[in-house]
């Protein structure tokens, strides 16, 4: 129940990816995200540790942006 990004939780979310890829297999794309359950109207990307990789971070009401980032369902079809 947080409304601010905790760097330890970003790392924790990213660490689940290899495990889930083993559990579900290579046919599934695992996309980690951090949802700030008490935040409102928030969507951004946070750096994972000291790497160039980023993790989407959002409030519950903005979770659709995480899905759209990877599925593109909100695009107007002209792209």
List the topology elements.
Layout: H1 7-24, E1 34-36, E2 43-47, E3 54-59, H2 63-71
Parallel strand pairs: 1-3
Antiparallel strand pairs: 2-3
Write up what this structure looks like.
The protein is of the alpha+beta class and 79 residues long. 34% of the residues lie in helices and 18% in strands. The chain has two helices and three strands, in the order αβββα. A three-stranded mixed sheet has the order 1-3-2. Strand 2 and strand 3 form a beta hairpin. The model has no long low-confidence stretch (mean pLDDT 91).
Q: From the helix content, strand content and strand pairing, which structural class follows? A: alpha+beta
**What's the overall geometry?**
globular
What amount of the residues lies in strands? Answer: 15-25%
Number of helices: 2
User: Mean pLDDT score, rounded?
Assistant: 91
Number of strands: 3
> What is the straight-line distance between the termini?
37 Å
Low-confidence stretches: none
Largest sheet: 3 strands, mixed
Radius of gyration: 14 Å
Order the strands across the largest sheet as they lie in space: 1-3-2
Order of helices and strands: HEEEH
Helix share bin: 25-40%
Please give a handful of descriptors for the protein shown.
single chain, 79 residues, alpha+beta, three-stranded mixed beta sheet, globular
Task: Put the structure in a nutshell.
The protein has 79 residues and is an alpha+beta fold. The chain has two helices and three strands. It has helices at residues 7-24, 63-71; strands spanning 34-36, 43-47, 54-59.
